[in-house]
Amino acid sequence: MAYDEGLAERIRDALRGRRGTSERRMFGGIAFMLDGNMAIGIVGDTLMARVGPARYEDALALPYVRPMDFTGKPMKGYVYVDPPGIEEDAALENWIAACSAFVSTLPPK
């Protein structure tokens, strides 16, 4: 499955200069890893955001957000954000910050 290269470039720009950042093909798209842990990714034109279990319900209450159900079963702690929810750079940066905050609580891989 292809992914939105323009969105990927926006994420790369936001993460540029951050130590421990890498990319990996995952979930049929691309994932951005922080210290080896998946933080954020793209499937098609949809953002995959790893917000963690504690922020999961709050994230689902936001506009353009839905459960990440890649396997047919929702993945707790992960949400999809549809394109209107990340059109503005500030909105995308907020998602990146939320995902980075959660992933920073995990041990490096």
Provide a descriptive summary of the structure in words:
The chain has 109 residues and is α+β, with helices and mostly antiparallel strands. It has one domain (5-103): Alpha-Beta Complex (Aspartate Aminotransferase, domain 1). It is 28% helix and 28% strand. The protein is built from 3 helices and 6 strands; from the N terminus they run αββββαββα. Strands 1-2-3-4-6-5 form a 6-stranded antiparallel β-sheet. Strand 2 and strand 3 (37-43) form a beta hairpin. Helix 1 crosses helix 3. 29% of the residues are buried. The mean pLDDT is 95.
Attribute tags:
109 residues, alpha+beta, Aspartate Aminotransferase, domain 1, 6-stranded antiparallel sheet, 3 helices, 6 strands, 28% helix, globular
Describe the secondary structure blueprint for this structure:
Blueprint: H1 5-15, E1 21-26, E2 29-34, E3 37-43, E4 46-50, H2 56-60, E5 65-67, E6 78-81, H3 89-103
Antiparallel strand pairs: 1-2, 2-3, 3-4, 4-6, 5-6
Helix pairs in contact: 1-3
